[in-house]
Specification:
Length: 623
């Protein structure tokens, strides 16, 4: 739920949108309003629920701040079977938003003015919150006061700042005439910036909006003021960046920075598993007496068959283990997950995590060591920041995003961050380490390794990053490409959309810490029942999976964009980091890929029309 500054409900959001499309600092376009999601300082977390995921919390502390103590779900109003009272305070529970941009346009008289001018009045409808709007009461045109619309031009910079468009500065070329009324007129039907003109009625000054974009914009736009609208403040010392004109709703106006972790059990006995599940409550028990009080108020119903002494002993053991392992787990989220999937110990199965190992598909026994059906899984995701103009996908790791680009979620050090939990199903495939090692040692692969390292270094150098850091290796490119090829194929039959599937790549060489690792997890993690329909797990059975892998590899042999796709190399352009891959063959939706469609090459999977490199294909013997 989203709410305006006057505590009026103005719309609804799904929990996943708070992390991926409408999070803190983003602009939400409502039917008659445009609003900014405010920072954590303005949130009322009375009705928020704490989510337990220790590994993710440790990673958030390491990436964001050690002051973060909790992961909280967005606040939701209490459910009630009765007809809701629209005056009830519970209807005011939600995510705080504020009108933005504050400059509004009257569609009738073309008046352009800020809300602070008092020229526009707010009209609310308690029964239809989607009809809340601002109107131009004194509009000289039309019989009824028209609903005004947000001005569709904004300014932003790479340091995460966003601001209203400097209309008066722009039309008067830096010298204001003293307060004349502004009008925004459109000529033509294209709606392009060149056909839109802002004019001052006071002095007659006018200017086309095309001057605010491209090369002219670099000359005519003022320096950024360092404004964080969602925090209601400005950066101390301002900002040294030039303002960049953007459109309202532009895709580069907000990019989330998120972290995620799968909830994996670490205990075998049932009591220890229950303690893990309810740790967000039990960690607050500082003594046996407090634990007994929790039981009296009904907090520990699932522990009815265990005594307070047994439970307290397990809590102390858990607290000791958490303090010892927290730092190590925060450094590497994926290694514990890999160990859990590769071992596939069914004795650890729980309500949130259920594994069923099956045989490798026929004909692929030499390529895969194990296939595991993940019938249940829980993923927790946390929002730790955001960027503007520059996407986090332009950096390999979250920790590499420059501090100047990383916009904060609150004015003070955050004590919590918004998070969501989703449940789904998945399919884990463990590659044969012997087969991977033999392939990596192919003499024909030496030149490719050199080219991939060079492409990696050029791409990072162009972004002022350490050119020698975080190179994933050809092993990762192979696993990543296979995951994309299989996801595209599985989406045809599993019943899920392509955007509902996600990947996790487990790749480490024998020389790396906790290596070697070679496996992929394709899973669904939707915030509703779509992620738990069972359609993906059913395709993991040996016969079905073998058929889909055959078809996936066969589709990779020829692309609709060949030969251009097959011959593509990142050495041709330092702004891309993929080889034989495009939207017609390997690319996946943004929410599905963990690397922003980088480090992909179908040439490593199967022979393509680029015959000179066909010998480096991992699955060449199958064809």
């Amino acid at each position: 739920m989203a709410q305006a500054q006057t505590r009026n409900k103005v719309g609804e959001l799904r929990p996943s949108q708070i992390l991926f499309s409408a999070g803190i600092g983003s602009v939400i376009d409502l039917p008659n309003l445009s609003t900014m999601v405010m920072g954590l300082d303005d949130w009322d977390i009375t009705h928020a629920t704490e989510l337990g995921e220790e590994r993710l919390l440790a990673a958030v502390k390491r990436s964001l701040s050690h002051s973060v103590k909790r992961l909280l779900s967005p606040p939701l109003p209490p459910e009630s079977d009765s007809v809701p009272n629209l005056l009830d305070e519970s209807q005011r529970v939600g995510i705080p938003v504020s009108p933005f941009p504050t400059w509004m346009l009257c569609p009738n008289c073309r008046l352009l003015a800020p809300l602070q001018s008092g020229l526009f009045d707010l009209k609310t409808d308690r029964f239809r919150p989607d009809q809340n709007r601002y109107i131009h009461t004194n509009c000289p045109r039309g019989k009824f006061p028209p609903t005004v619309i947000p001005a569709r031009f904004l300014v932003a910079c790479k340091h995460g700042h966003l601001d209203d468009f400097p209309w008066r500065y722009f039309v008067h070329r830096g010298v204001d005439c003293g307060g004349g009324t502004l009008r925004l007129n459109e000529y033509g039907v294209s709606g392009s910036a060149a056909d839109i003109e802002v004019k001052c009625d006071g002095c007659g000054a006018n200017r086309r909006m095309s001057d605010a974009f491209g090369e002219p914009g670099k000359k005519f736009m003022p320096q950024c003021r360092g404004r964080h609208v969602h925090l209601r403040n400005f950066d101390e010392g301002g900002c040294d960046q030039q303002m960049v004109g953007i459109l309202l709703g532009a895709s580069n106006s907000w990019f989330p920075i998120t972290l995620s972790a799968l909830s994996i059990p670490t205990a075998v006995d049932k009591l220890a598993q229950l303690v893990e599940k309810h740790w967000t409550v039990l960690e607050k028990a500082v003594s046996l007496e407090v634990l007994a009080a929790f039981r009296l108020i009904g907090q520990l119903k699932e522990f009815a068959k265990y005594s307070d002494a047994e439970l307290w002993a397990q809590v102390q053991q858990k607290r000791s283990a958490t303090s010892d392992d927290g730092d190590e787990e925060s450094k590497d989220i994926k290694t514990p997950e890999w160990q859990m999937f590769s071992n596939a110990d069914t004795s650890l199965n729980s309500a949130d995590f259920w594994l069923t190992p099956v045989a490798a598909p026929k004909g692929y026994e030499s390529y895969f060591n194990k296939v595991v059906l993940v019938e249940r899984l829980r993923e927790v995701r946390a929002l730790v920041g955001f960027t503007r103009i520059e996407s986090p996908g332009d950096f390999v790791e979250t920790g590499e995003i420059p501090e100047d680009f990383w916009a904060p979620l609150s004015r003070q050090e955050p004590k919590w961050v918004p998070a969501t939990e989703v449940r789904g199903e998945g399919l884990f495939i463990q590659f044969s380490e012997q087969a991977i090692a033999q392939w990596e040692n192919l003499p024909q692969l030496k030149d490719y390794k050199k080219q991939s390292i060079e492409a990696h270094q050029r791409w990072r150098t162009a972004r002022s990053l350490d050119p020698n850091a975080n190179y994933p290796g050809v092993r990762y490119i192979l696993l990543h490409s296979f995951a994309h090829a299989l996801m595209r194929q599985l989406a045809i039959e599993c019943g899920y959309t392509a955007a509902s599937l996600r990947e996790r790549i487990y790749s480490k060489s024998p020389q790396d810490d906790n290596g070697p690792m070679a496996g992929i997890l394709i899973y669904t993690a939707a915030p509703d029942s779509e992620g738990t329909l069972g359609g993906l797990v059913s395709l993991g059975e040996p016969a079905a999976l073998g058929r889909h892998i055959d078809q996936a590899l066969d589709q990779m042999r020829l692309c609709a964009s060949d030969p251009l796709c097959a011959e593509h190399s990142p050495l041709q352009n330092p702004n891309v980091l993929h080889w034989a891959a495009c939207h017609a063959c390997l690319f996946s939706p943004e929410t599905s890929c963990e690397r922003g469609n980088k480090y992909l090459d179908r040439t490593l999977l199967i022979p393509t029309v680029k015959t000179e490199l066909s010998s480096i294909a991992f699955f060449k013997d199958l064809m």
